[in-house]
Write a structure and sequence with these properties.
mainly alpha, elongated, 151 residues
Length: 151
């Protein structure tokens, strides 16, 4: 028989994985949008390692803010759960509390997801051809010239 706590932890891990993949996609899109800024920094002499570190710190800060929000949400849900009294004839007590181990795990999980899912966008955004990125051309993806416009 599978313990309900293991099933619940697996579901939470799956939701965390989906959220991290979504945030990694957003970080990749943001890095693509910042391509010209990163190219200018590299052209001015910035070290690639320094730019990776900056982008990685941004993703870690974002992950820690999400972890703090998750802990605050957990505190609120635990207080609601312990104050819930169902209308049943027998006494039902729920013993749920957050201690330092939960806070430590959430902090370590936030740091780990920030590093793991922020490293790929940071490496991807600093690895490109410098000269085409510095040119003053805007991306015209999906743009198609209309047959009504004559040049």
């Amino acid at each position: 028989m599978v313990n309900f706590a293991w099933v619940l932890m697996a579901a939470v891990a799956l939701v965390l994985l989906i959220a991290c993949a979504n945030i990694a996609g957003l970080l990749l899109a943001r890095a693509t949008d910042r391509r010209k800024e990163i190219a200018i920094r590299l052209a001015l002499g910035a070290n690639r390692l320094r730019l990776i570190r900056q982008l990685l710190i941004e993703s870690i800060v974002l992950a820690v803010i999400g972890g703090v929000g998750g802990v605050l949400l957990a505190i609120w849900i635990v207080s609601m759960l312990t104050s819930f009294r169902p209308p049943v004839d027998f006494p039902l007590t729920v013993e749920v509390n957050l201690d330092w181990r939960v806070l430590a795990f959430s902090f370590v999980a936030s740091l780990a997801t920030g590093v793991l899912f922020g490293l790929a966008p940071a490496l991807q955004s600093t690895r490109f051809a410098l000269v085409p990125a510095l040119k003053d051309t805007t991306s015209q993806a999906g743009y198609r010239r209309s047959w009504l416009i004559r040049s």
